Amino acid sequence: MKFRIDRDALADAVAWTARTLPVRPPVPVLAGMHIVAGGEGNSDRLKLSAFDYEVSAQVSTEIDVEEAGTALVSGRLLAEISRSLPPHPVEVTTDGAKVMLRCGSAKFTLLTMPVEDYPTLPEMPPAAGAVGSDEFAAAVAQVAIAAGKDDTIPMLTGVRVEIEGETVTLASTDRYRLAVRELHWKPERPDFSAVALVPAKTLADTAKSLTAGAEVSIALAGTGGAGEGMIGFEGGGRRTTSRLLDGDFVKYRSLLPSEYAGLAEIQTGPFIEAVKRVSLVAERNTPVRLSFSQGEVVLEAGTGDEAQAVEALEATLEGEDIDIAFNPQFLLDGLSAIGSDVARLSFTTPTKPAVLTGKPPQDGENPNYRYLIMPVRLSG
Predict the structure, then answer these.
(1) Mean pLDDT over residues 92-101, rounded?
(2) Which of 128, 295, 330, 373 has the fewest Cβ atoms surrounding its Cβ within 10 A?
């Protein structure tokens, strides 16, 4: 194997692929990055792959090939080397059981691993449709914040992806909050429908890393179709697959209130800053209290025997005055995700979930992002 490649192109491709390398590989070869230079139908392409039996990543980039070939080397070592090379073209060659990288006057020799022991990457499921990469990344980020972190309940660590025609709905919950985002996409078939539960961390990392291309192609079997248990994403010469999570997701639509007793609107930026300031005195797991009345909201944290903080902000209120309390970090997560300069908080009672949204573009329209948050009961 012998090829030349631009230093930045190599560093970028290796860094992206290395994200999938397992921290503690179940078998040694999974710590390797699979390199294919040239070959059938890809005479001027380099393919780098990583796989940990759950998630696979593969990137394709242009190179000058002198001699086609395949090799398997330590992925983490290759990533560290690629990142620190001087700004010159890189020449990669194999010599027996070694791979050599030359870049300017720098030369590295890496030992290879047995390429025949490397597992075959899973096939991409059938292409289901495409969505704008930036919008997809933003939507996934809005929803992934509410996914659970407890691996003992795998179902809650995922994002539910529901596809019905031209609408994709993303939802996640950790039982204390629920995030739901709807977006439009271009399906391969107008009647396409599918449901998948994708690990939230994998989905968030993938969506964020595929913004180099204008669109992301989503590969997913339709309801009852072949290739179940997998989802694939492709864009900008990069493709990744992930195993889906098993389990029945919460029937989340029934959690969203159909009507509200009150609605408050506050400028998002000042609200975020005030919550941050007031929560400085909130001991671990203690809430920030919000007292809404006509024209203002008063934020409070701390108790009589400890440090206390109080701050008032302008707010509009429709409905009766209400005192309600939230976990400050959960509240900040939602405020940071709504993507609007006005935060709208809709509530029913101080003990029932409230829904945080941005202000919809036109009154009467449903917002495409909703963040439901459970209040903390106030004692006394």
Answers:
(1) 94
(2) 295
Query: Count of CB atoms within 10 A of residue 94's CB?
Result: 19
Instruction: State whether 244 and 134 are in the same domain.
Output: yes
For residue 378, being part of any structural domain is answered with no
Task: Report angle CA 77, 244, 61 to the nearest 5 degrees.
Answer: 40
- Does 261 lie in the same domain as 248? no
**Residue 343 lies inside a defined structural domain of this protein:** yes
CA-CA distance, 86 to 247, in Å (whole number)? 49
70 and 43 together in one domain = yes
Domain boundary among 253, 287, 303: 253
Q: Are 134 and 49 in contact (CB under 8 A)?
A: no
| Region 125-152 average pLDDT | 94
| Mean pLDDT, rounded, for 185-190 | 93
Alpha-helical runs (H) found in 32-175 = 75-84, 133-144
Report the domain count for the chain.
3
pLDDT above 70 coverage of the chain, percent: 95
Mean pLDDT of the chain: 92
Question: Which range has the worst mean pLDDT, 225-234, 280-289, 303-312?
Answer: 225-234
Task: State residue 361's pLDDT score.
Answer: 67
d(CA 34, CA 148): 33
Return the closest-CA partner of residue 344 out of 334, 196, 57: 334
Domain stops at, among 253, 287, 311? 253
Buried b (16+ CB within 10 A) or exposed e, 63-81: bebeeebbbbbbbebbbeb
Query: Is residue 380 assigned to a domain?
Result: no
CA distances from 375 to 162, 174, 184, 257, 323 (A): 27, 14, 31, 14, 10
Query: What's the domain range around 164?
Result: 127-253
pTM: 0.90
Whether 90 shows a pLDDT value over 60: the answer reads yes
